[in-house]
Structures are given as C-alpha cells and as structure tokens.
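Example record

The entry below shows one chain as it appears in the dataset: sequence first, then structure tokens.
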Amino acid sequence: LTFAFTAVSEGTAAEKAVLKIEKIPVRCYCESCALLFECTPAAYTCPQCHQVSPDMRTGRELKLVSMEID
C-alpha cells in the first residue's frame, strides 16, 4: 500500500503527503466454543479448543480516517 501510494502520488498535489497506516490485529471467531481470539496468518487455530477457525472477524479493514488538503 505504501509503495502504491508513493508511485501514484508522484508529480501530483499529493506528492508530499504522508500516509500513516495503523494495523488492526487479525481476530477469528471459533463457533465451537464461542471465543473471539487473536490469530496469525499462519495459524487460525482456537487457543481454547484447538479447532481451526476460518471465520475472520477483524484485520481486513481499510478505512480512510482523515485527509487534510492545503
């Protein structure tokens, strides 16, 4: 995302803009034990019952929080 922003902003009014990225933890939901847990991209395994959970609830968001234009 940072590379793309830099590439498309060159030569435009946004050239000197600053892109700030806030990472949101990936959280999955386990249907077996109703637990919302933080997981890693390599392991979506529930820490309580050890079932694999493909139900990702957070971590895919992309939201523009603010933009200032002078």
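Notes for this example: The longest helix spans residues 2-9. The chain has a mean pLDDT of 87.
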